[in-house]
Amino acid sequence: MPEPGPVAEQELLAGYPPVRPIPPEDIRPTADEVLVVLDDDPTGTQPVARVPVLTRWREEDLAWALDDRAERPHAVYVLTNSRSLPAAQAMARTREVVAAASAAATRSGVRPVFVSRSDSTLRGHFPAETDALVAGLAEQGAAVDGVLMVPAFPDAGRVTIGGVHYLRQPAADPQTGPLLVPVNDTEFARDATFGYGTADLPGYVQEKTAGRIRAEQVLRVDLRVLRSGTEAVREVLAAVTGGTVVVADAVAEDDLRALALGLAAAEAHGRRFVYRVGPSFVRARIGQAQPQPLTTAALRAARAMGTTGVPPAAGGLVVVGSHVDLTTRQLAHLQATRPDLPAIEIEAPAVLSEDSRAEHLQAVVQRVLTGLAAGDVLVHTSRTLVRGRDAEDSLAQARSVSAAVVQVVRAVIEQVRPAFVVAKGGITSSDVATAGLGIHRAEVLGPMLPGLVSAWAAVEGPAAGLPYVVFAGNVGAQDSLTEVVRRLDEATD
Fold first, then answer.
1. CATH 3.40.980.20 domain range(s) in the chain
2. Residue 390's pLDDT is what?
3. 272 with 142: CB under 8 angstroms?
4. How far is it, in rounded angstroms, from Cα 131 to Cα 91?
């Protein structure tokens, strides 16, 4: 395990071969292959564009997403929001999706490849969700040879070198280049529900499986293999059997593409994998180039896709639920830059008390409506994270606060139509999409920032034509939230 504290990236990379450039068009998924991405919160869509996203997993919804259109997408995202659930419920939900997607794939004549997309800082239900994928596929008569773990998200500065997962940070001295911090030395490792003690991925697997899978049983695909050519990667992966966990390095998009090419070659020779990945790998695996940030014209076109019977508001609604330090700093930057922006707090202690919840939320809704009549409005939860008695109780309290956020959003859109909605935080953005805005089928338009912050357009329902921006809590620079709101305001007529 690495020593705590930052280390120079160039020092860690010394001795490894240089990155091997691979154009995205070199990766050609087969015509019948579709990645079914079980997204444990909506932020996994941020690196991709022009793919369908579902917030429910009925067979007919999946068949709609998998149907052979003019250009069938090679990936479909299914928002399970499982990071907000206890592990047993997350596993049950995973198996439901596998069953429904398998049936829909048979109807549509496609071959599904199942992906468990989770957090690039290692928070989430592992191994519960990959265990459920393996069990669900077994029920469909398909044996899994390996579980491929690729948490790297280079767009957001999450990289893996020598099997150790890091967060990239700028150095105080630009001459030294970026610094890398092992993820176990960050706030994410201290998560109340999903905390962990090591950044070494084989050690993480051993820790999270409580020793069922020992670190020495985990297979590594390091940068030397990835940068040696497709055949070298294929040889390693083609030998995987018995559900072995495989962890892969990646520092750049080309490393992910190298892995995708070798993986596709191994799968073409009969190997079957399920993937446990951060956001970037799906884009590499389907051969999609990094989409450019959405233009003002594209955002305006999305708004023209639908209307509702409620009157339009003068501004947009920004909802912040994430409690990570970066979100709090982004929130402070937005408020400092926009002192005119009404900031309305949903107070956690008030909503966790049955005596005060209803009255407090009614007052919040009224203040939001008043603010939207004049312009943009910011709604945020209390910045002090409420912790429960244990991990499960902490998760239950987080769900209760998120339900309050949803109640506010739903009450607002029943009366006015904001120019846009931004949701900051994984659970927040999931709950706002499904229960607040009633989104069931949508298209990922593309990113608001390079490789980060996804914008959706609902294809039906009360949110059709309403740009909905899914903003992960732990990505971006200090001014990123401010920049996203500024660009949305520019696209508001």
1. 296-490
2. 75
3. yes
4. 8
Alpha-carbon distance 80 to 40, whole Å?
5
Nearest to 236 by CA among 209, 253, 218, 212: 218
> For 491, how many CA atoms within 13 A lie in the half-sphere containing its CB?
27
How far apart, in Å, do the first and last CA atoms of the chain sit?
A: 53
pLDDT the model gives residue 425: 85
- Rounded to whole angstroms, the Cα distance separating 57 from 149 reads 24
| pLDDT score at 443 | 92
Alpha carbon distance 78, 57 (integer Å):
7
Confidence of residue 388 (pLDDT cuts 50, 70, 90): low
* Section 28-45 average pLDDT: 91
CATH 3.40.50.10840 domain position(s) in the chain: 7-285
Q: 296-490: which CATH number, 2.60.40.10, 3.40.190.10, 3.40.980.20, 3.10.310.40?
A: 3.40.980.20
CB 379, CB 319: distance < 8 Å: yes
Relative to beta strand 164-169, strand 179-182 is antiparallel
> pLDDT band at residue 354, thresholds of 50, 70 and 90?
confident
Local structure of residue 432 (DSSP, 8 states)? I
Amino acid sitting at position 276 = R
User: In the chain, helix, strand, coil percent, each to 5?
Assistant: 40, 20, 40
389-420: pLDDT as tens digits = 677 776 777 788 888 899 999 999 999 999 99
Report whether 50 contacts 58 (CB < 8 A): no
Do 275 and 137 touch, CB atoms closer than 8 A?
no
- Environment class of 292 (CB within 10 Å of its CB; exposed 0-12, middle 13-18, buried 19+): exposed
- Say what the pLDDT of residue 385 is: 60
Q: Both tokens of residue 378?
A: 């910011």
**Inter-residue contact 192 to 384 (CB < 8 Å):** no
Could you report the per-residue pLDDT of 169-217, keeping only the tens digit for each? 887 677 778 999 999 999 899 988 899 999 999 999 999 999 999 999 9
Tokens of 295: 């233009």
Q: How far apart are CA 157 and CA 153, in angstroms?
A: 6
Q: Does residue 493 carry a pLDDT above 60?
A: yes
List the one residue out of 312, 315, 369 whose CA is nearest residue 340.
315
User: Regarding the domain delimited by 7-285, which CATH topology (the fold level of the hierarchy) does it fall under?
Assistant: Rossmann fold (3.40.50)
Q: What is the pLDDT of residue 389?
A: 67
Total residues found in the chain within this entry: 493
| Phi, psi torsion values for 182, nearest 5 degrees | -55, 135
Q: Is the pLDDT of residue 71 over 70?
A: no
